Amino acid sequence: MRQDLISPGAKELQYEIRGIVKKAEQLERLGLQVFNENIGDPIAKNHKMPLWIKDILKDLLDRDETYGYCHSKGVFETRSYLAKKNNEKNGVQITPEDIIFFNGLGDAISKVYQFLLPNSRVIGPSPAYSTHSSAEAAHANDQPVTYYLDPDNGWLPDLQDLYLKVKYNPNIVGILIINPDNPTGMVYPEEVLLKMIAIAKEFDLFIIADEIYLNILYNGAISKSIAELIGDLPAISMKGISKEIPWPGARCGWTEFYNREKDPAFARLCKALEDAKMIEVCSTKLPQMAIPLIMEHPNYAKYRQEVNKRIGERSVIISEILKDVKGIRFNPTYGAFYNTIIFDEGVLHRNQSLKVQNEQMAKLLDIWLKDDISLDKRFVYNLLVSKGICVVPVSSFCSDLLGFRVTLLEEDEQKLRYIFNEIKSGIEEYLKL
């Protein structure tokens, strides 16, 4: 072509969470049974939707209005419902006009970073959730800017690291908080959130709070939404139903703007997001219509509590299996449904391997390992080919740490125990413990 077609930032658009599926599919075609621990889809891991939720959707499908457009920002009744729920709980008051629906939270994430100036940076956690880090880096045509989550301190953020990076990088305009965190399963204590808010106030920043897992807490964990703590600080909260109901196939997420009129630049960002949604006409209507009906159903609170309890029980099982394995750093989880396991420094090297019985699969693995890849990715590929277990390397989460992320979603306990005992034996064989 007479000119380049893509921006330099396009190379930052990486999503190993699904990228590794291509390799798993190659192995499945060769007859390997693959256990997918790479992506947070409860439905794929044997979660059964209750009949009362299905009945709500069936009733909505009988309404002619379900099939038409809705307001560009989203169904007004649903936005009113969500604004009322927020205002009853939180100190920051919003109206339906402060809420915009998107086709999944990934759509919202992409839009928020898209309309920032290229030299305006949002600093996020590392290990990072790929959708955020890739979109932020792509908009800036540069690598992500991150603050450190410390595996030796329960994955809590290194606040000194955050403070110094904000202080000495004037291009940082916002702080991203993912609470509970993906990929680590860490839940932010209130005092940590308040300290991060204080940093944002000191340097005149706004906050993006990805709170899609905020109602997925277990094993005694509690946390607060950003709206309960920010006072008059401008912020965007990102929420959705993919994980909570859970209905990932609905592709239904939304943003809530707090204190949008407190800062003219922040108000213009909110307006740009509204204008972008106007151009798209609207987001998918059916799941929006279902939200108040599901969340106000008399069974919903108990259902969510039971689901959280089961996730917590699975986290305990995984902890029992992996917590004492030598050569790794393991933290129990209290929110979301992921755990990130880190290898101790120096235990990985390029000559390690797991046994592979199938010759064709062994040849595939040799091809994959010829590339100059990270040491944790070498382990992940070995585990996939040898054990049929598909996990995600931590190095693909914009991190210098080496390890892998798993999910806590498998509802068949026998299968869950099998998977994590195989992971345990894979680690021990790989490290020759």
Describe the structure.
- Helix content is 41%, strand content 14%.
- The protein is of the alpha/beta class.
- The protein folds into two domains: 171 residues, Aspartate Aminotransferase, domain 1; 231 residues, Type I PLP-dependent aspartate aminotransferase-like (Major domain) (Aspartate Aminotransferase, domain 2, 3-Layer(aba) Sandwich).
- The radius of gyration is 22 Å and the shape is globular.
- The model has no long low-confidence stretch (mean pLDDT 94).
Short description:
This protein is an alpha/beta fold and 433 residues long. It contains 13 helices and 14 strands.
Topology:
Layout: H1 16-29, E1 35-36, H2 51-61, H3 76-89, E2 99-102, H4 105-114, E3 121-126, H5 130-140, E4 146-150, E5 156-157, H6 159-168, E6 172-178, H7 190-202, E7 206-210, E8 235-240, E9 253-258, H8 264-280, H9 285-295, H10 300-322, E10 328-329, E11 338-343, H11 359-370, H12 375-387, E12 389-390, E13 392-393, E14 403-407, H13 413-431
Parallel strand pairs: 1-12, 3-4, 3-6, 6-7, 7-8
Antiparallel strand pairs: 2-9, 4-5, 8-9, 10-11, 11-14, 13-14
Helix pairs in contact: 2-9, 3-9, 4-5, 6-7, 10-13, 11-12, 12-13
Q: Which CATH-level-2 architecture of the largest domain?
A: 3-Layer(aba) Sandwich
Strand order of the largest sheet: 2-9-8-7-6-3-4-5
Low-confidence segments, ≥5 residues, pLDDT <50? none
> Could you name the CATH topology of the largest domain?
Aspartate Aminotransferase, domain 2
* Strand runs, count: 14
